[in-house]
Amino acid sequence: MENYADIRDSVRRLCAGFPGSYWQALDRDKAYPTAFVESLTKAGFLSVLIPEEFGGAGLGIGAAAAILEEVHRSGGNGGACHAQMYTMGTLLKHGTAEQKAKYLPRIARGELRLQTFAVTEPDSGTDTTRIITFAQRDGDVYRVKGQKIWISRAEHSDLMLLLVRTSARDEAAKASDGMSVLIVEMKDAIGRGLTIRPLRTMLNHATTELFFDDLEVPAANLIGREGSGFTYILDGMNAERILIAAECIGDGRFFIDRASAYAKERSVFGRPIGQNQGVQFPIARAYAQVSAAAEMVKKAAALFDAGEPCGADANIAKLLASEASWYAADMALQTHGGFGFAEEYDIERKFRETRLYQVAPISTNLILSHIATHVLGLPKSF
Ligand SMILES: Cc1cc2nc3c(=O)[nH]c(=O)nc-3n(C[C@H](O)[C@H](O)[C@H](O)COP(=O)(O)OP(=O)(O)OC[C@H]3O[C@@H](n4cnc5c(N)ncnc54)[C@H](O)[C@@H]3O)c2cc1C
User: Fold this and answer.
1) Phi, then psi, of 165 in degrees rounded to 5
2) Which among 101, 106, 270, 277 counts the fewest CB atoms within 10 Å?
3) In terms of CATH, what superfamily is 231-375?
4) In which band, very low, low, confident or very high, does the pLDDT at 2 lie, cut at 50, 70 and 90?
5) In whole angstroms, what is the distance from residue 123 CA to residue 130 CA?
6) Ligand 1 nearest-atom number relative to CA 365
7) Which CATH superfamily is domain 5-108 in?
8) Predicted confidence (pLDDT) at residue 1 exceeds the cutoff of 80
9) In whole numbers, what is the pLDDT of the chain averaged over residues?
10) Are 239 and 86 in contact (CB under 8 A)?
């Protein structure tokens, strides 16, 4: 299976210019890693999934996964920009020829950032069919009213894909019918019906709350057919799960690298702490778990790139990788003792960052429910 050694090497070299001190300062101020994102963009790493005809590299999800894994292994975080890689997939697959020609080449060149995907609402939770943000057609425009929460990178994006209801849930034949996806051009929207409120969270993720008060969006910005938006977002979710899983693998390897190095060098009771099996075994277990999860990520990526069904594999990859990275995070903190809590070691920051992936973009329970009901045929609980 392709390992993308050259790409990995280039990403490692780029990331070496953004050491722990860079991320620590941003984390302290909850600031956006603009220089890092510009550097990745300029190197073409964020447009690898865009087909060559639109100016991208036309590579598969395996290459994108290798990029994000290396970013995370270096101690950095791809959360600031990973959505720039895959959000365009909805536009690519379901947009009109005009929409693709208008946006994709500029996204590929890095002139436009499409890295905001607004789905979650305060009262819908994981049950996306319960969203109530509504877009009412009015001649050549839609008028949008409602609210979204946990919408990441909205202040650092030129375009946003917005999931809305275009007919009420109880009017639709199926709960998942009646939703639509709109492209919102942020510069036209902010202050003219769209208000963005940043949310402070336990990690630096540029996430926000959005308020829509009669925001006008041109009807020409509807992606695909009105009412079919839910199926379009499902399409994009496998890519997202595989890429998030790759970030978890990178985090896991980061923790193992750091813990192994520290356990060899830290001497207590007259010997390296790593000579004690009580310290060695958790590191070895983390290595085994991350290695196994990485194979699952590769399998899901290969299926995705071959155009095969990969929903179950993408979910399993994300479940196992997020659990392996969290075990590795806990292990690395324990191995570092008190120093694990010091900012300058990067462990406490990465510990907070990797915890997210058992909740977002989809929580562990919801993946287990998918495996139980869709793969194993157990009765549905909701
Ligand atoms: C930092 C951050 C960034 C995010 N970025 C984005 C973004 O850019 N765009 C976006 O649209 N969303 C984003 N999200 C939202 C994220 O996708 C949701 O938080 C996530 O899907 C979980 O939804 P919820 O928070 O409403 O939890 P809930 O759905 O309220 O669930 C709460 C808990 O209950 C469990 N649970 C719920 N129902 C069941 C059930 N039937 N059986 C068993 N367990 C159940 C869940 O597993 C979870 O652990 C982000 C969230 C965070 C924290």
Assistant:
1) -90, 135
2) 270
3) Butyryl-CoA Dehydrogenase, subunit A, domain 3 (1.20.140.10)
4) confident
5) 8
6) 47
7) Acyl-CoA dehydrogenase/oxidase, N-terminal domain (1.10.540.10)
8) no
9) 97
10) yes
Tell how far the Cα of 321 is from the centroid of ligand 1, in angstroms: 18
> What is the mean predicted confidence (pLDDT) over 346-375?
97
What six digits make up the tokens of 269? 């009771």
Domain ranges within the chain, ordered by starting residue: 5-108, 114-227, 231-375
Q: For ligand 1, what atom is nearest to the CA of residue 203?
A: 1
DSSP assignment of 250-312: HHHHHHHHHHHHHHHH-EETTEEGGGSHHHHHHHHHHHHHHHHHHHHHHHHHHHHHTT---HH
> Residue 234: pLDDT band by 50, 70, 90 thresholds?
confident
Task: Name the residue with the closest Cα to ligand 1, atom 26.
Answer: 125
* The model's pTM: 0.97
Q: How many other C-beta atoms lie within 10 A of the C-beta of residue 265?
A: 10
Per-residue model confidence as pLDDT tens digits over 64-101: 999 999 999 999 999 999 999 999 999 999 999 999 99
Q: Which amino acid appears at position 224 of this protein?
A: G
What SS3 state is found at 58?
A: coil
User: How far is ligand 1, taken at its centre, from the CA of residue 319, in Å?
Assistant: 14
Nearest CA to ligand 1 atom 18: 360
